[in-house]
Amino acid sequence: MGNTKVLAAVFGPHAVTRRSEQRSAEEGAIMVCEYAMAAFSTSERRRRGKGDRRSTELSMAIRNTLEQAVMTELLPRSQIDVYVQVLQADGGTRCAAINAAVLALAAAGVPLRDLVASVAAGHLDGTPLLDLNYTEDSGGGPDLAVALAPRLDRLVLVQMDSRLPVDTFQTVLELAREGCKTISGIMRAKLLEHTQRLAVARGLVGGGQG
Amino acid sequence: MDAAVRVRAHQPGADIALIERALNVQDAPNSEQFVCVGDEIPTEGEEGFLRGHGTQVVDGKLVATVCGLVQRVNKLIYVKTLNSRYNAEQGDVVVGRVADVAGKAWRVDLKSRQEAKLLLSAVHLPGGIQRRRNAEDELNMRAFFREGELISAEVQSVHGDGSVALHTRSAKYGKLVCGQLVEVPPNLIKRQKQHFHTIEALGVELIIGCNGLVWVAPLRPDRAAASADGGAGAGADGDADGAEPPPPPPPSRVQLEVVCRLSNAIRVLTRLYMHVYPAAVLAVYEAAADNGVALRDMLEPEFLEAVAAQEAQRRGSAMQE
């Protein structure tokens, strides 16, 4: 998204590594998420541990979003690990992280309820903005992170740290919704292309002969 | 002599591009068969369809939950994924690593959603004795398989929650030593009648586990005999220190090279996302041997390209027939 680059990796579903976390068969899979920023991701080189408060909070936001996207009830007694690494940060890293994680899960064949997409929206100098970059983000305006399940038209994540009048909030939220739908469409097209390429390589479809 | 280490830039998707070029595909075919997460699967004119894997019903419409190909068998509609973890089925031959010895069972890592269990009562006692397992057998479980060892087994049953029970009640299953393990995406492996292959001409045995682990080892005619002798001391009279089978004679250099070449052949197929089965593996092996491709050059793009071209030719001729 813009100049933001994110790498997501999915491991599993596999057996639960810590026995104490094992849930009963009815409850479904455990999601484990880890968000980290590379030292070289911002313009100033800064060493960031994965244990700092910001990344812990973001890991939690990502986990909560993904838990609603994945059909965990189909995978009882298992665990899915998602590792997200920000390679280049230019605003909206949490949304990019969610999108990357959803794509990775879909590519790994994990059953998903919907292709959840996420985008940030803001409001600066009387104009609603979509997908803020770093300069826009540091302008001091409100920053609203939204994740949407497009088929069900249901919001799975809404996060905002500052205040905003209700009517402006409505317009900003509407804008973010539209943005999510667009992004979901792009993700869908990319995933479909990926699946088709895999199928062609495997000779599953006869249409491969040029 | 060229440098011992060759560095190449990483090109994502280069291997798929290779086979696409060989097959002469300009753009991926746009077919109705493909679905993506959240796509609706058309069900017109199909009253009372059955919902299969990878689908869910939302507001009376069938919606895919995974990316893949839509398959229809009579009234059943399901989506086949192209890349996922191994899903065990009864009767599968698998290769796994013993993770843990727990009570009356070994926990085996199959690269599946959960660890599989191999019950003590599901292993073959040495000498084929039929009896109940007692506490002494339980104490001597490590004489059969220790943690970290590789075993081949068969899936006995799959429970409702996806947990798997294995058995090794045949002389052909058991511990795997002195060989090479190759990991393959499980979707690339076809279920076949035979998963144990002995290639006499090369003196190699090949176990293609349905879970995507492939075992390549030099052929040892004494294997069955050795494992029976080794276990006899442990199981029958509870003598734990006599349990180790005599170490087999180390394979010769030629044999090892054959094993490595076969493993590399499997890796080549994996890189090109092609099915792994004995005929294909041997075809790649022979292509490498005929063209005098050195062992370490087998995973170079030049050879991959040649294999892709060969595959394209094979598919082309299969189409004409």
Automatic annotation (TrEMBL), chain A:
Superkingdom field: Eukaryota
Biological processes annotated in GO: nuclear mRNA surveillance; poly(A)-dependent snoRNA 3'-end processing; rRNA catabolic process; U4 snRNA 3'-end processing
GO cellular-component term (any): cytoplasmic exosome (RNase complex)
Subcellular location as annotated: Cytoplasm; Nucleus, Nucleolus
Protein name: Uncharacterized protein
Presence of the UniProt keyword Cytoplasm in the record: yes
Domain Exoribonuclease phosphorolytic stretches: 1-111, 114-179
Pfam families membership: RNase_PH (PF01138), RNase_PH_C (PF03725)
Molecular function GO terms recorded: RNA binding
Keywords assigned by UniProt, alphabetized: Cytoplasm, Exosome
Family: Belongs to the RNase PH family.
TrEMBL record, chain B:
Keywords: Exosome, Nucleus, RNA-binding, rRNA processing
GO molecular function, one term: RNA binding
Keyword RNA-binding attributed: yes
Residue ranges of the region described as Disordered: 226-253
InterPro entries: Exosome_cplx_N_dom (IPR025721), Exosome_RNA_bind1/RRP40/RRP4 (IPR026699), KH_dom_type_1 (IPR004088), KH_dom_type_1_sf (IPR036612), NA-bd_OB-fold (IPR012340), S1_domain (IPR003029), S1_RRP4 (IPR048565)
A Gene Ontology BP annotation from the UniProt entry: exonucleolytic trimming to generate mature 3'-end of 5.8S rRNA from tricistronic rRNA transcript (SSU-rRNA, 5.8S rRNA, LSU-rRNA)
Main location per the UniProt record: nucleus
One cellular-component annotation, GO: nuclear exosome (RNase complex)
Taxonomic superkingdom: Eukaryota
Protein name: S1 motif domain-containing protein
Organism: Edaphochlamys debaryana
